[in-house]
Design goal:
Helix content is about 20%, strand content about 30%. It has about 160 residues and is α+β, with helices and mostly antiparallel strands. It folds into 2 domains: about 5-35, no CATH class; about 80-160, Beta Barrel (OB fold (Dihydrolipoamide Acetyltransferase, E2P)), CATH 2.40.50.100.
Length: about 160
């Protein structure tokens, strides 16, 4: 890596809010850590252990909590039956190959495994991200030109 590439990496990490990145290439390894200017303060409260009868009374309530209702997003979509296509890396998310090009996919489009659905730019490399399931695009989770984290959902797909 050149000095300029390292400087660009540091700038990207600061903008995206990522806390740590490690890159390893042919005998070269670099780890960049971003520490917040004002670290969060964490306060904990330790409660006394409840008595055995209190635990017995709490058990039925815990059993009811395990029956999860259908998880609905802010837009009313039942996300429990959808497949999330997740980012395989950190970078910048793009829905199209260029500003004057059409989006790779839109809500309602049918997709197959292997179809390119977006691009993630990482360190000046444009990586095509392919769909990993057959189905219909239900939601685009990330805004165009937004920074994304590793394993962050990008699209919600209704599997066939």
């Amino acid at each position: 890596m050149t000095k300029k590439e390292i400087e660009e990496l540091v700038k990207f990490i600061r903008r995206s809010g990522v806390s740590e990145v490690t890159i390893e290439q042919r005998g070269f390894k670099i780890t960049v850590k971003n520490q917040p200017k004002h670290p969060e303060q964490v306060f904990t409260h330790v409660a006394a252990a409840p008595s055995v009868p209190a635990l017995a009374a709490a058990a039925p309530a815990a059993a009811v909590a395990e029956d999860k209702p259908a998880k609905k997003g802010d837009d009313g979509i039942d996300e429990s039956k959808l497949h999330a296509v997740k980012s395989p890396m950190i970078g910048t998310f793009y829905r199209a190959a260029g500003p004057d090009k059409p989006n790779f996919v839109n809500v309602g489009d049918e997709v197959q495994p292997g179809k390119v659905i977006c691009i993630i730019e990482a360190m000046k490399l444009f990586n095509e991200i392919e769909c990993d399931v057959a189905g219909r695009v239900v939601k685009v989770v990330v805004d165009n030109s937004s920074p994304v984290e590793y394993d962050q959902p990008l699209f919600l797909i209704e599997p066939k």
